[in-house]
Amino acid sequence: MSAVFPHSTDARAGASAARKDSSALYGTWLTLTPQGVLHAFGTPEPDAQQQALQALLSQPRAISKAEWGGTQLANADLPQCLKNQWVQSLAHAVNGPDTRLSDFIRHVIAPISGTRRAVLASDSGFCLDRIGIAQEEADAVSAAAADFSEYARRQSRRGWHAANRYVAFYDDPMLLMPAWTFVPFWVAGAGYWLIIAGEPLLNNLALVELVWGICLAGNRFRSEF
Fold first, then answer.
1. What is the number of alpha carbons within 13 Å of residue 68 lying toward its C-beta?
2. Residues 6+ apart with CB under 8 A from 114
3. pTM
4. DSSP classification of residue 41
5. What is the per-residue pLDDT across 104-133, written as a single tens digit (0 to 9) for each?
6. Beta strand 63-64 with 29-32: parallel, antiparallel or unpaired?
7. In a 3-state reduction of DSSP, which class is residue 29?
């Protein structure tokens, strides 16, 4: 005769739920979405929430929820970040870019343009790399980005901070599709411009890879060029 334990099923279910909850906390990794990158790195003076989000791209691999939660969760407001689709959860850790930026920039910025033509420039007007665009034109749009940076700084001093956002130029008077789009972002106080020809595909994960690579390179980035 076998003994019957009426509560054993409930106990196993409870243990399973506990393991699931534990997995949700310790077995989940977090990283930014393209929208999260544009929000977190979209201002030269990030607030507490933006700094918390930037921390997700500070390590060579995705940060677990437990690791990030120990220091940044309170500032980030994770439910809001998930609702706004700034953060995505991963079932396993993924690695960040593990290569010299000068070796992969043109490959990672190409998918952000519908015509695979783009430039990455510093806010001082230096062309860091380009794809599908002649050097002379890349230098010209990089110099234009520097002018936009100075314009944004002047407007910020006057109290209008919207100039820090995006700049677009259209060939079509109906403004249906930009011919050029200028997207500013800041990493550790350094300003950059992503200059996109044709349709801007800013929802591409390549944007996350680009900014993650710059975060990991740190001060070595400028010395590579």
1. 30
2. 198, 199, 200, 201
3. 0.82
4. T
5. 899 999 999 999 999 999 999 999 999 999
6. antiparallel
7. strand
